[in-house]
Amino acid sequence: MGSSRLPILLSCCSLLLSFATLTLSAEDPYFECRYAEENKGNFTDKSTYQSNLNDIISQLSNLTDFNYGFHNLSAGGNPDKVFATALCAGDKTPNECRTCFNYTITKLIDRCPWGKEVVAWSQFCMVRYANRDIFAQLDSDPRTCAYNPTNASNPDVFNLALSNLLTNLSDEASTGGALRKYAADNTTDDPQQMIFAAVQCTPDLNQENCSLCLNFAMSELSKCCAGRLGCRVLRPSCVLRFETGSFFNLTAVVPLPSPPPSSTPSPPPPPPSTSATIGG
Ligand SMILES: *[C@@H]1O[C@H](CO)[C@@H](O)[C@H](O)[C@H]1NC(C)=O
Ligand SMILES: *[C@@H]1O[C@H](CO)[C@@H](O)[C@H](O)[C@H]1NC(C)=O
Ligand SMILES: *[C@@H]1O[C@H](CO)[C@@H](O)[C@H](O)[C@H]1NC(C)=O
Ligand SMILES: *[C@@H]1O[C@H](CO)[C@@H](O)[C@H](O)[C@H]1NC(C)=O
Ligand SMILES: *[C@@H]1O[C@H](CO)[C@@H](O)[C@H](O)[C@H]1NC(C)=O
Ligand SMILES: *[C@@H]1O[C@H](CO)[C@@H](O)[C@H](O)[C@H]1NC(C)=O
Ligand SMILES: *[C@@H]1O[C@H](CO)[C@@H](O)[C@H](O)[C@H]1NC(C)=O
Ligand SMILES: *[C@@H]1O[C@H](CO)[C@@H](O)[C@H](O)[C@H]1NC(C)=O
Ligand SMILES: *[C@@H]1O[C@H](CO)[C@@H](O)[C@H](O)[C@H]1NC(C)=O
Question: What CATH number labels 145-252?
Answer without folding.
Answer: 3.30.430.20
